[in-house]
Design a protein that fits this description.
Belongs to the acetyltransferase Eis family. With about 400 residues, the protein is an alpha+beta fold. The protein is built from ten helices and 21 strands. It has helices at about 15-25, 30-40, 95-105, 160-175, 250-260, 280-285, 305-310, 360-365, 375-380, 390-395, and strands at about 5, 45-50, 55-65, 75-85, 110-115, 130, 135-140, 155-160, 210-215, 220-230, 230, 235, 240-245, 265-275, 295, 300, 320-325, 335-340, 345-350, 355-360, 380-385. The chain is globular, with a radius of gyration of 23 Å. The structure holds acetyl coenzyme *A (ACO). The site of acetyl coenzyme *A (ACO) has 22 residues, from strand 4 and helix 3.
């Protein structure tokens, strides 16, 4: 079988995207969603694999800037729309696309590649580590009470049509990005993503709604959500489905959560993707009635290892030699001295003896500060060669807030 792997040509987008839809089960995306992804596709950064004139492989790489510990926004490739035709599976087409893509990303000078996986088992072999988790919950608001901090009553709430409120929500979102590793600075066009709301995908729920939290006329928080009314023998038992929220201070945050949890005729708030350290967990009277669950979120790959390690800061002073194994991107393999602190870091090749040995996948998992090197060592995935190095590096790599990716891509 000979196939042709090449950059996507704009005129090829339809069959290319159709291949992606087929690989994901064949149901066409809603036109609203299709149009958004078409507008956001960066053809010159996307790959198509063709068998004759049939598209059999797809992969894209959005131009992102990712928030990392310390608040820098690092140029990052957002790997997306990966698929191989079921007629051509398990013949190495994904591997060939990952090869081309990571070579490209390195050549573009982007230190990181990130993705969210349809199945977490796919990408470890290409050097991606699971760096963030997302919290899912269903809060039983008939039973759970919320205690709110002082100042919450000073926050005014106002319903607004989501389209009209979008600019104000985006302004709040943008201010949150540097403070939470894993968040993405949104480029023009991406503000449409939280507003996607095809009627066919509401599953009995309302259209998207928006509440704004304001203090002295300034928007300090928001939530995008829908409601699903339902009635049982004992009366109302509707559900609030939270899509997206953000707030600039604890009182604004609590005001939004009190609104979500206090809606009349609603018995539950469903939360699909929040940070694992989301503060509402400390406001509720009964955390057991919140049905907390966690799943993998952002998978991170260090493409240019020294540039990536120098782009973030470290929570405590650290001076370690890392012996890194990177089979898929061998330019990262070798010994690297990392010296860093809360202000910055340097990372360069060294012949000195290793303090810690690990693969680039573990480094990707630990990079945003949400997965501890000590925990990875407990699984036998990080080896300590100098006593004390593991504790030192674990502390330094940690983040005060859990890294989190608010939305898929
Ligand atoms: C970021 C995103 O876009 S996530 C979306 C990923 N896409 C999908 O899930 C759509 C449906 N699935 C597919 O399109 C394909 O099955 C793909 C893309 C996952 C794999 O494509 P293929 O061309 O079959 O993969 P390829 O032949 O290169 O396999 C490489 C290796 O990965 C392994 N692999 C491939 N798919 C999977 C999987 N789903 N789970 C576990 N391992 C896998 C193969 O067994 C192979 O292992 P080996 O090197 O030890 O032999």
């Amino acid at each position: 079988m000979t196939t042709d792997l090449r950059a996507l040509r704009p005129a090829e987008w339809e069959p290319w995207f159709r291949q992606l839809e087929l690989a994901f089960g064949g149901v066409p995306e809603h036109p609203q969603e299709r149009e958004l992804w078409k507008a956001l596709t960066e053809c010159e950064r996307s790959i198509g694999v063709w068998d004759g004139d049939v598209c059999v492989g797809t992969a894209g790489a959005f131009t992102f800037r990712l928030s990392v510990p310390g608040g820098a926004l690092v140029p990052t490739a957002g790997v997306t729309m990966v698929s191989v035709a079921s007629t051509h599976r398990r013949r190495g087409i994904l591997t060939s696309m990952m090869r081309r893509q990571l070579d490209d990303v390195f050549a573009w000078g982007e230190p990181l590649a990130v993705l969210t996986a349809s199945e977490p088992a796919i990408y470890g072999r290409f050097g991606y580590g699971i760096a963030t988790r997302q919290l899912r919950a269903e809060i039983d608001t008939d039973r759970v009470r919320l205690s709110v901090p002082e100042g919450t009553d000073d926050v005014a709430l106002r319903l607004a049509p989501p389209e009209e409120a979008s600019a104000a929500c985006e302004a709040v979102y943008a201010r949150l990005v540097p403070g939470r590793p894993g968040m993405l600075a949104r480029r023009p066009g991406w503000e449409r993503l939280p507003l996607l709301d095809p009627p066919e995908e509401r599953a009995g729920g309302s259209a998207l709604q928006c509440v704004l939290a304001e203090r002295d006329g300034e928007v300090v928080g928001f939530a995008l959500y829908s409601t699903k009314p339902e009635w049982g023998p004992a009366g109302p038992k509707g559900t609030v489905r939270l899509r997206h929220m953000g707030a600039l201070d604890p009182a604004a945050y609590a005001a939004v959560w009190r609104f979500l949890c206090g809606m009349d005729l609603m018995s539950a708030v469903q939360v699909g993707n929040r940070p694992v350290d989301d503060p509402w967990q400390h406001l509720v009277s009964d955390v057991r009635r919140c049905d907390l669950r966690e799943v993998d979120g952002l998978h991170v790959r260090l493409v240019d290892l020294p540039a990536a390690l120098e782009a973030r800061t470290y929570r405590a002073p650290v001076d370690v030699v890392l012996e890194v194994d990177d089979v898929f991107c061998p330019w990262n393999t070798g010994r690297w001295r990392l010296s860093g602190d809360p202000k910055g870091a340097t990372c360069s090749r060294t012949d000195d003896a290793a303090d810690l040995a690990l693969s680039v996948r573990e480094l990707g998992a630990a990079y945003l500060g949400g997965v501890s090197l000590a925990s990875l060592a407990g699984a036998g995935l990080v080896r300590e060669a100098r006593q004390g190095a593991l504790a030192e590096a674990s502390l330094a790599f940690g983040s005060a807030v859990a890294p989190w990716l608010p939305h898929g891509f």
